Amino acid sequence: MAEKDSQTERTKKSSLLEKSSLPVPSEFAAMGKRRIEDFVNAQTDLLEKLQASNRQWFDRMQSEANLASEFASKLTAARSIPDAMTACQEWANRRFEMMAEDREHMLSDCQKFTETGAHLLWNGWQSKSSGVST
To answer: Residue 18's pLDDT band (boundaries 50, 70, 90)?
Structure first.
């Protein structure tokens, strides 16, 4: 009789679990795996963007060093004040162009990083809200 009651209890519990919206262990594992994959993909994407930005800014530093070296060469080669002024004016013009390019690159980098962060947060928010049953 006790065996029959325990069997009935197990049947009731299993039918309650089937009716509930709780995922089974394999679904928990799949959800966890998806979240980890999403996180790793977002981290990889962010790292790639950071590396590209780092390379771009390193190249920029090298071009600024080359510009400064070129300016110093022209300034030391100048034989008159007008030649020196021309060298200064050329350097200033190129430097302002480079600053405008820097601004564009900075804005582009900020936008890329913001989009990546928003994507990461959105995926986290979606996975949290999809786990809540109403």
So the answer is: low
